[in-house]
Fold each of these.
Amino acid sequence: MTFELETAAHPENLKRIVIEPVTRVEGHGKVTLLLDEDNRVHQARFHIVEFRGFEKFVQGRPFWEVPVLVQRLCGICPVSHNLAACKAMDMIIGATVPVAADKLRRLMHMGQILQSHALHFFHLSAPDLLFGFDAAVGKRNIAGLAAAYPDIARQGVALRRYGQEVIRLTSGKRVHGTGVIPGGMNKNLSLDERDYLLKEIEQIIAWSQAAVELIKVIYSERPDFHNSFGFYRSSFMSLVRSDGALDLYHGGLRARDEHGQTIFDHVDYTHYWDYIHEEVKSWSYMKFPFIRARGREQGWYRVGPLARINNCDFIPTRLAEAERKIFKEFGGGSATQATLAYHWARMIEMLHAAEAIQELLHDPDLQSDDLVSSGERQLRGVGVIEAPRGTLIHHYRINEDEQIVRANLIVSTTHNNQAMNEAVRQVALQYLDGQQITEGLLNHIEVAIRAFDPCLSCATHALGKMPLEVELLDAAGTLIQRLIKDSDGRHRT
Amino acid sequence: MGAPAMSKTITIDGKNVPFQDGQTIMNAALAAGVYIPHLCHNPQFEPHGSCKLCVVSVNGRNMTSCTMPAAEDMVVANNTPELNSDRKALVQMLFVEGNHICPACEASGNCQLQAAAYYLNMLSPHYTHFYQPRAVDASHPDIFLDLNRCILCELCVRASREVDGKNVFGISGRGIGTRLVVNAASGRLGDTNFAATDKAAHVCPTGTILIKRQGYKIPIGQRTFDHKKISEVQMEPMEPDHE
């Protein structure tokens, strides 16, 4: 590991290179590098510099409003926040969600996975993968992709559009709908709506297959390069179904270490805090979660497509399962820890989502009117799903008047915080250390970050907990006064 | 006795509109199918004249049409660019004075303030938000009271007084500090005899008075204003209660 690069021992007199903003990711972040005069890397950090505060301002709001409110965290995967929050609210109202509503939510979620994965692969990452990491900046974007590979660009747009249509017909709107309510859904899928979606699904599956083929070809052309780029080993965490299948909507938590050994399995996520803790650091608004049993230093892990494809025992749809096997066997399992293998795993998931949509559309339960239930009220609710970018945890506590009094969100990108920093440090050492720095080399760092498909706007939640240190210096640089705020909010000098 | 003959008329935007003695310009217009934008007016209650959206030009002078009795030969201008521009500014001021977070509000799609904004082609709040801290009262088992969204129309005050006979609500304070208050020593709704079945629980034009646990149950596409403009909904024979 490269933890020594998190904080330089002697930052004075080092050159500072800043990549700001990091492009082709969701949200705002920056990378800072500290280099000595020989361009040796002494410090590399990925900072999240934006600030949201949702956990604070949902306080006092009625619990049934919160799933709609918190989905505004994101314009890319609002469905994930909507669903995770509503699963927490199901628990609060003591509901056993009716079968039909559960399937409608799954359909909505698969639409979300499809559109988000398509967006990331075709719009954000394909320019790097198809043109090269140090290709001309003017070409390395979606417009360049559309000019050079019009069919691929068109398929990317069409896949995304289809996913958005699935979301619209289940939630009422393409973005920020209100279909999911505590205890179930407020509408079913009419036969007309079903037939409209069925018309295109074969084509969507075919394009998803082509996307898996595309990334497989790209990856296989230079297996050593793709396997080694920003390489490191880590633990993985994800939800899995009770039989070990890939399940992006519901299941138990499974974590495996860098050797594939189980750390915990089929854990009831409503007590996630027995297994995961969060740390705050002074230089990022994003928290650093870790697996409790392994401690702060060793406990970090990766989530998202690579974690899920590695962790599951099988994928319950035919075509995606065949691709999972190919992926796992590739180079004797050499891709399973690779940073860039996220892209491959993501496309396998997109194929799974397309297949799952087809399967669900043929299910007559989607036309049922039995859509809502409720039961015995509780004051605490936890909802966890696998969002496109990884495990998403929503945790709420309400008072007797049904207002939120506490909220904790651990967002997919937050889980990957340490992992993204590790990837940045690895790439900095592999490609930048001692080199003449060029834009193309700096893009290598962004490529490593992009592999995780981070959503930085979702991930920044360290309100009031971030430790801060303020120093007052005189003109000569002599320290006059220092004020430190610790993560528990206490001040000291 | 039959209905009194309505031989007297006014003109609104050039159209002859008959009226009975004592009838306001607003009610005469509504009866004749002429829409005048309004928020605090509801034909079920006595006029209030506070929102000023219904201001029209009567023989060249601006008057509140919901309180002004019609009189023979009045020449009324209503649907003019000038008046609609003033109305839009009034709605924009309501938006910045309160905290109207439409994207997460469960009244979205059923909200008259939002519908009026759409009708008047309001594309942004235009003015600087006040971001006033406004109280939320969740103490009642069945009702959630969110003053962030209150536009001081007094419809709940009138409904509670005139229909429910309870006087649960009142208005207190002055100027920017004016606010809806609850008639209980504690000031809490949970300490009143207010009930979810009361008329006052169903007349709020915005999302201030909400029946608990009902939010978002009506799918997008089936809400009051999803397919109809406020000018159509408010012209219907009996304005619906607003859940």
Amino acid sequence: MTTARLTRRTALAAAATLAMPRIGGAQPAMIKLGLIHPVTGALAGAGGRCRMGGQLAIEDINAAGGIKSMGGAKLEALLGDAQGRPEIATQLVDQMAEAGAAGFTGCFASALGLAATQAAAKYNIPFSIDSGIADAITTRGLKNTFRFFPNNTTATNDAMAALDALNKKAGSPAKTAVIVHEDSEFGTNSVKLQAAMLPKIGIEVKAMLPHATPTRDFTNIVLRIKAEKPDIVLISNYENEYVLLARTLVQQRVDLVSTFSISGGGFNLKFAKEAPTVAENMIDFNHWHNPKDPRALAFRKRVETATGFYSWEHPFGYFAVKLLADAWERAGSADKEKSIAALNASTMSDHFMPYGATAFTNGQNSGAHPVALQIQKGDMTVIWPDAFADAQAVFPRPKA
Amino acid sequence: MKWLALAILAAIPFALPSQSLVNIAMLTAFSAFLGQCWNIAGGFGGLTSFGHAVFFGTGAYTGAILQTRYGLNPWLGLPAGFLLGAAVGAGIGAASFRAGLRGSYFALVTLAFAEVFRVLSNSTDFTRGGLGINIPLNLSWQNFQFADRRATYAVVLALLVLATAAATWLTRSRFGARLAALRENEDAASALGVDLVQTKTLALALSGGLTAMAGVVYAQTYLYIDPTIAFGSERSVEMLLVAMIGGAGTVWGPLLGAVVLHLVADISRNFITTPGFAPMLYGVVLLLIIALLPQGLAGLWATLRERIRRA
Amino acid sequence: MTEIVIAGLVNGILIGGVYALVALGLTLIYGVLHIVNFAHGSLLMVAMFAAWLLAEKAGLSPYAALPVVSLGMFALGWALYRFVIGRVSRGEDRAILLATLGVAVVLDNLFLTIFGGDTRQIETDLTFAMWEIGPLLLSVPKLIAFVVSLALATALWAFMARTDTGRAIRAVAKEPEGARLMGIRPDRIFALAYGIGIACLGAAACLLLPSFFVSPHVGNVFVLVAFTIVVLGGMGSFPGAVVGGLLIGVTESLGGLVLGESLGPIGISLVFIAVLLFRPTGLFGAAR
């Protein structure tokens, strides 16, 4: 019994210390910012990149003199590993709120974002979503939740507009399509919208092929694609399956006008480097920076020098933090109500995303749009919309 | 005396001003509850299950579907979840024990059942497939959604007491004695007239029903479930670890296991930020506990108590 | 449609060959140590990273790396049993199970710390090599994997049946006490058997790499399949693992065609449950 009490007391004492990290050194000119991402578990890679982007933003803001309207207040990052589990994301919000966090960014995945924003809403602390595309994050009426980046509906609508534009420009070579998608939230959500919209842009959907995650082999799916003889294949799935499907399409010599993925999980510069033959000329509709902005190129170089790999998650993490800092700068305060009011009135245009100035309706930035990307000569190029394009689309792709 | 001390310790978080400390207490109690649920079948009955997520997920989906699809009050999820969880447990149990499965074979069949449920929930419209179910945010106690973590903690604590009472009952009742007899020696117990299939099936049904209630609470707390969250193997492993590390087949084992595992996980997560390092440490601690405390933490407790008594 | 079914069948058989190799190690470990090796998936992941590193940094083809990786994995498996699993668990079944789980947690997160969570792959000269039979296009790396898997399975079976070491392993598996009386040290044999089981993963990793991907979570992708094959074939049975592997490969492939690739995976689990409930000894297993 003695031991039991000891264990329990030690437990509480230890818990108390970890609930209030570094509270002793609290200075008035410090704004604490919670960065919540999955940096272990299945989402670790992408979550880590979001976190790094956020840390770079804090570094830049502090180097430039902090929040000037608050007497140069510096930002301090509270880092949290949500491990891909909603209950841990919630726990981190509680801990950081009590440690005095004035704002949050995160959480890479929608399921984590849903749990974390809801927890932060109880404290009315502003939450700036980095990645996490589910519409529901900002449609649930949470007053504290803001997303600078596009939601799923916008992404899918834009993707169809992009496909239509590319197709028309090339003389409409694509008339039929097969949709391949993974069967969890990420794929299913956008596929319903795609299937409804494709006929409107003159593309007939010949088949929809859902698959599980993980799927170990794509030969069957590719054979069914082959049997349908579509002009294009639309893909929505995660990294591992994306890589396998793309490779199998080449192996089975499927003759296509193009592939067109929407938020293709595996479509990135590492893919372009490790699988150059497969990746060349693949098109993905996804997030990217504005390649015509020199700051974006400098940012990419900075990340690549540090880690060797740059992806859209880096600027996402970066601008999720910048959005909050901009609000604090204008509010002249990190007070919750004032920051939320400032976020609602946000017109941030000092960024290098292809978005224009921010304008929030119910927490969603209505100016945010993804772009069409193509891997050309092993590098990432933007091919649509024309305002941000740094390359001509290769569409239809050359015959093998 | 022991009970009083425990009751006081359990009550302390209600007096704490910090929501985050209450939340840690809540998560620990939740783990202990899950561990105890597993313990009822896995510890007392020796039915080593690797797929208890099948019950957890059943409960989570029951609660979520009843309110989002049929507009029923979320509180009804608890009894409904218990009944459905128990039914699933009875079904799996009857099939497995009739076939004479035990040990690794039983473990694997539970694993497979959880996987079947995961795939099914992932591909049928009734469960909204891979989209998962979003429970609308509507904080009020009538709606089983609490703004204050202490309320959630109270619910979890009540369930933990319920499960622990069930475990205590197993140590004192004739049913528990029959179950223990089967665990120790199936042939001998059967020869003495213990109905193997019925006894084990009941134990699994009880365990399954309680586990499903944990699923209901989870869904009400985090308001979003999908097939992996509900039926993923991580949950099964967590339940098994809590009970086994604490001491399987003892009433207090899951409590000890949950407290220690949460301490290790929370502390390492908070003090070491290198990705992957904290869970790695968790694995090392696990290995150390297995190596140094073969009977689990409850065994250590028993040994220490014995020593103190002698001294 | 017939074309697709035939293609699916052939493809299933090819994949089944590699599944069999992954399962072979698992069934050997179960047969001798009577435990379900929870670290199996993690060790496959370790082997795949080893093969990937050799390919990426040293330019070594995965096929050339096969003997090296297998030997390395043997050493790792042997050492893991001798210094961690065996020691931590003192031979108790329940503790061995937990110990393998602990090893899996440590390995998964160690590799996550070192390599990050991203997916990696290689593209070699053979990646796009296809063998054309009529309308069918068969991937050459998959054919190689299939042939080498079956050859290795045969070799392993011969080793167990014909050599003194193999006999000693089988003796320990059947009668540990009896074997001890004959002067065989069971703990050494356990470490040896664990090492051989893990060496199979080394070979499987090299054969898989050209047509798959690598990430710290790649092991999970194969674990349930491997369990299913082992149970289907009969725990501890080599021919069972091979036939089971092929059957599961075909079930998965045809299940995907009939039910769709979303519901398809349920086929594997249903086979698994059905075998456990109605024929727990599997196709080739001896009485429990």
Amino acid sequence: MNYSGPVRTGRVGVGELTALLTIYTATDVFLSYPSRVAKESAESGWMIPLVSGVIVLAVFLIINACMKRFPDENILDVARQELTVFVSVPLGIIFMLLFFSQTALVMREFTETVITTVLPRTPSTVVALLFMAVVYYFAYKGIEGLSRLAMLLSAILGIGLLSLLIMPLTWFDVHLLQPFWGRGMLTTIFYGGTNTSMFLNVLLLSLLYPTVRNQRQFVRVGVISIGLTAVLMSLVLIVFIGVFPAAPTGQVPFPMYQLARLIYIGRFVQRLESVFVFLWTAAAVLKMGLGLWMTAYLYASTFKMPLYRPLLPAIALALYVVSFLPPDFPSVQLISANIFEPYGWTVSIALPVVIAVVLYLRSGRAQGNHSKRRIARAARAN
Amino acid sequence: MDEQFMLTPEESHESSSDDKHSSTIRRSFGPKRLTLKRMRVYYGIRTTGDAKDDASGNTSVVLGSKEVKPISMAELHEREKNSGANGELAWNRRLPTAVQHDLAANRAIIDRIFYLPTNADIVKRDFEIGGEQTVHGMIVFVDGIADKTIINTAILEPLMLLSNLDRNQLQSELLTRVKNALLPGNQVMEFKTWKEATENILAGSTVLFLEGVNSILSVETKGWEHRTVSATQTESVVRGPHDGFTESFRANTGLVRSKLRSSELITEITQVGKLASTDVAIMYIKGVVNPKLVREVKKRLKALVVDYLPDSGLAEQFLEDDPIGVIPKFLSTERPDRVAYGLTEGQVAIFIGHSPFVLLAPVMFWSLLHTSEDAYLRWPYGTFIRAIRMLSLVIALLLPALYIAVTNYHPEMIPTDLMLAVAATRERVPFPVVTEVLVMEFSIELIREAGIRIPSVIGPTIGIVGALILGQAAVAAGIISPLLIIVVAVTALGSFTMPNYNLSFSVRLLRFGFIIAAATFGFYGIILGLMLLLMHMVTVKSFGVPMMAPIAPHRNSSPDVIRRGQVFQMETRPNAYFPLDKRRQKDFTRTWSPVVKDYKKDRKSLFKE
């Protein structure tokens, strides 16, 4: 079949995409992210997501300004046309590998979380297999289903998260948040910079650009999802650091789980951690579904395949296998802390912005290129 | 049916529609002008140019189309008898499409079509239309579905007793005179083909044949016994109309039309079914409904080629978008007011034959949880009962599963005292919780199923025996814990609150799925199951409309999804149906209210600035 168009994805609404991106990024608060940040920056840990958020927002606005010239096309398509396949294919593979490895890592982390918290005697392979089955179905349904489900769950997850933050406040001590700058302002800003690795919003947005139904509101999607994620993460960290003293926070493997365990409001409302399993499992399935879908979508669009669904079984199997490569949970955390966080931003933030700026400059130089492409696109559509 | 030539008295102005069945060669024969018609007639011999063997392997007598030789009726009959087809007459082999001039031939065809006299339901009544020179006529109807009073007083009496026809009138004039002056029936239609004649007879009309006229008159005499319009069986409300659809196609469409008196309300009727046709009506409001939706409904109905379509329940299965899922994709309702309101929102109603359930499409999942009473009650009450129903959906779906998960996997969730009480009640029970739950759920399903089948006289007794005595005995025997009885009873009540019968089935089925998931993986299993279900629900569509709209995907809508908003806030129709006319009421419908007056004044002054 001679097919030259992009992979068909369906279109998503603005609200739906905002919800999906927010859930995708903010789900990290259910993992070891809060504890890692609290370890890095002690009392001022709650500022880190805000600092990261500001940086990411700036980068997003730069990319948006550059990519405005190429409506209806994502960064890979534009790179292919402007910089040839010798750039776009390696670029696509790098992005794909980022999503793949991140999803594998998250899958392992969540599997371990489930085993530690609710199913201690179930083999991790079974837990992961169930996860994989649901995630496969989610990825199969694609961005349309994922974004709608995110929209549907956003209210429930929001209310759940807020109540999870409010209920342990009986243990909250504002003095634990002092000194205000923690390990110092520079440390906070430095870690705020490296933690931008957690924000895959920018990369996702630059790749999902053509799927948005209403592109005029694209900036709104980016700004709201990045801002909301940063605020949510920061709120979680405020409660976390305010409840647990700074010294042991780094040792808590599942901060949200520990917070839920602390809940004690009278005899009947206590130990609600099982209830909150709902929150993180729901969020995790969505996150991994999008991760798997992105991997398949990027693979398909890098190599100009018309469909992504036939790739799913192979990628899902690979994910399953790769997620079991680290021998144990501490080594998973080490990979997260030593590889993803310090270097992840180079792919998730720096690479898209560099590419976008290069594309912007090139298209500005080669005048009329864009209009030629627009004509070609119109012809293709006809 | 064969093509052959026969002599007929010339008609001065033969209607052109007749040309389908005959081509006329005008020739003069003797003093009276006769026309030799080469026509497809019922009796006759094959006149095809080439001598082809018929199905029975016998070669018919063939007259070359160029060698035209008129023959008499008696000779024709004789030839036919001797043609070798086991004595079978030509009219016993194939049936013509057009009604014949000759009354005897038509009578023979009627016998063939309805297998008379074996078939006792069909009544043929020969009579003569009065006057000095009588004209022979015949009426045909189905006993039991045609109203005999109408036949006697509006067909036979005027024709036989009160008429005076001139038999020398031309056939078209004869028919017109009978139609216009002699038949006082309120709906009289003229047809020319046997297909139409048969359909009309089977639909309860009385069909009139006249000697020498190759058309029929169908008089509307439908009048079979059916249940009168009575209270709905499955969608009862306290506040609001109580009438429900019944087993009468026309009464059902009439019920909706009587509620929705609009000239824009359109009812298109078609037939489905090859063996026995069923009337199918689609109803919509022009100018409100999206024409693409109407086209889609018609397209799907057109593709529905079956031999028989007995009920809307089957039509639903043929027409739905995704046949695998558990969620119903139509709103099947018994309530005319529900259909009328749905039509004003931009939905299409599909009436299938005499089914008392009408289908509304497309439908959003939330509508399956709504009742018309939500709207008739003031908004706080409406919102309250809706909230109860949403909660009961969760209970009916998840409560037994949650009970299993908590007792098996997460006992720490419940306070210690309660846990001890649960453990104490379970101490004597020899089964695992899941077995207990499955046994009780199965018993409840038995009671429910038995409750429908049991004769209504002893129904309540069985309910008491089943629910109370069995439950009490099970607890006393120590095979079921008392707490579980409460769980199962509340679950059953929850599933009874589902206002849609189909939805309550999907909840019942899914409940068992969740019970298994909870028994094997606790909360984790329930959550994964729930996520799968939700993902299915957000991607499933009803006639192209995502069923979880207007929430996921988000579509603009009046506050009538989860809560019931104030009625004067509901200015727009649901956007998910893409109606042509999006507004249903003015922004301000309470202009007399001081609050609104002040608001409007403020707004005006704001715009001035």
